Amino acid sequence: MTIPKRILIVDDDEQIREILGEYIKIQGFEYETASDGIEALAKIKLDIDLVLIDVNMPKMDGYEVIKRIRSEAEFRDLPIIMVTSMASREDRLRAVQAGANDFVAKPIDQTELEVRTVSLLKIKEIQDTIKRHKSELGEKVQQRTAALRKSLDEMVDAQRKTFEAYLDTIRRLAIAAEYRDEGTAAHIMRMSNYAAILAKGLKLPPGKVEIVLHASSMHDIGKIGIPDGILLKKGKLENKEWEIMKQHTIIGSRILKESNSDFLKAGDVIAASHHEKWDGSGYPNGLKGEEIPHFGRICAVADVFDALTTKRPYKEAFSNEEAFDILKKGHEIHFDPEVVDVFFEKVEDIINVQNTFYDGNVEMESLDFDRLRY
Question: Got the DSSP string for 303-369?
Fold first, then answer.
C-alpha cells in the first residue's frame, strides 16, 4: 500500500490555507496547515514530504522559517516551495539563500502548483530511495563487518592458542631433556629469562629478544642422546666420556635443524654454539670471537651462570659472588666481553629472575671448571 504524500501549508491567511488545501487534495495528497512559523516548525515533524510557505507572516517571516528548517540535518533535503507575490530578483535570491527550492506566484495557478509540487516530490522520492538504499547498505556493511570482525577475532584467538601450544611443546621438550639430567623446569625458566635480559640489554630488536627467550630453552635438547651413565655420573668424567658428553651440542643441532620455524632455527644455532668460547677453546667447532653466533654468545653467559649457582648431580651450588668472579675471569677468554658487561649492568634483573625460579643456594664443593656440564 502506497502512503500518500503529506504537504505542510504555512500561511497566516486562513483563506489561502483553505484554497491551497483544496488544490492539494485534488492532486491526491494529504496536508497539514500552520498559521505561523512557530506552528510550522512544530508540525514539520509529522512526516512532511513538502512545504508550501508564505513569505510575509507575523512573528517569523518565511525566510527565517526556511533557515530554521534547513538548520536541522533531517530536513536539509526537504522540498520547500515559497508562495509569494514578490517578483523581484533580490527577493528570489534571498529565498534561494534561505533554502527554498522553488516559487509559486500569487495569485496561485492550480496547474502551476501541481507541476511544481509533483516535480519536487518525485525528486524527494528518488532522494529517499537513495537514502534508504544507503541505510540498508550501511546496515549490511555493519553486519558483514561485525561478522568479519568476529571471524577475525576467532582466527586470531585460534592462532594465539596454536602459537602458545607450539611454545608449550618446545618448553616441554626442553624440560624432558633437563629431567634426564636431574634438572627442573625452573632451570629452563631461569636460563631463558637470563638470556632474554641479556639480549634486551644488548639492544636487540623486540622480535629477536622474543626468539632468544624461547629458543634458548632448547640449548641442551641434545642431552636426550647422551647415555645416563655419563649424563648422571657423579664426579669428573673420563676423557672418552667427556668426548661423548660434548656430542650433545651436535645432537641438539641435528634434532632442530632444517625447520621453517624461527624459534627452532635459533634453537639449532644455540644448541650448536653455546659451548664455544671467545678464545676459540670451546666445542664442538672451536669457533673464536665473533665467529660464534650472537645467540650462542648470549646463552653461554646465561647458561654458565645458572650452572654455577644451582646444584647438579656432580656438584653443589656456588654462591652468586663466586659465580660473578668466574664470569669476570672468563671475560675475553670464555665469554664475549660485551655480553659479560651487559650481565653486570643488568645484574639486578638477573637476581630477580633467580629469586623467582630458585629456592636458594646450598653449600659449595670443589669443581673442575673445565668439565662443568652446564
Answer: HHHHHHHS-BTTB-PPPHHHHHHHHHHTBTTTB-HHHHHHHHHTHHHHHHHHHHH-----------G
Lowest mean pLDDT among 140-144, 170-174, 278-282: 170-174
Report the alpha-carbon angle 339-205-201, nearest 5.
Answer: 30
- Per-residue pLDDT band at 333 (split at 50, 70, 90): very high
pLDDT at 310: 85
pLDDT (tens digit per residue) in 151-173: 888 888 888 887 777 777 777 77
Kindly state which CATH superfamily the domain 181-371 is placed in: Hypothetical protein af1432 (1.10.3210.10)
Could you tell me where in the chain the CATH 1.10.3210.10 domains are found? 181-371
Poorest-confidence range of 109-113, 161-165, 304-308? Answer: 161-165
Beta bridge partners, 33, equal: 9
Helices and strands of the chain, counted as H and E runs: 15, 5
DSSP assignments along 153-200, one per residue: HHHHHHHHHHHHHHHHHHHHHHHHHHHHTT--HHHHHHHHHHHHHHHH
Show the cell assigned to 264: 627452532
Residue whose C-alpha cell is 571471524 = 151
pLDDT of residue 183: 54
Location of each CATH 3.40.50.2300 domain in the chain = 6-133
Smallest CA-to-CA distance from 297 within 257, 355, 339 is with 339
| Secondary structure element (H or E) that encloses residue 299, with its range | helix 294-309
Q: How far is it, in rounded angstroms, from Cα 343 to Cα 302? A: 9
Measured CA to CA, the distance from residue 344 to residue 326 in angstroms comes to 13
Mean pLDDT, range 69-89, rounded to an integer: 83
Residue 179 — very low, low, confident or very high, per pLDDT cuts 50/70/90? low
State the pTM of this model. Answer: 0.58
Cα(150)–Cα(343) distance, integer angstroms? 45
Measured distance CA(96)–CA(93) in Å, rounded = 5
- As a CATH number, domain 6-133 is 3.40.50.2300
- The answer to whether residues 36 and 14 touch, using CB atoms and an 8 Å cutoff, is no
User: How confident is the model over 200-218, as pLDDT tens digits?
Assistant: 999 999 999 999 999 998 9
Do residues 217 and 170 make contact, with C-beta atoms less than 8 angstroms apart? yes
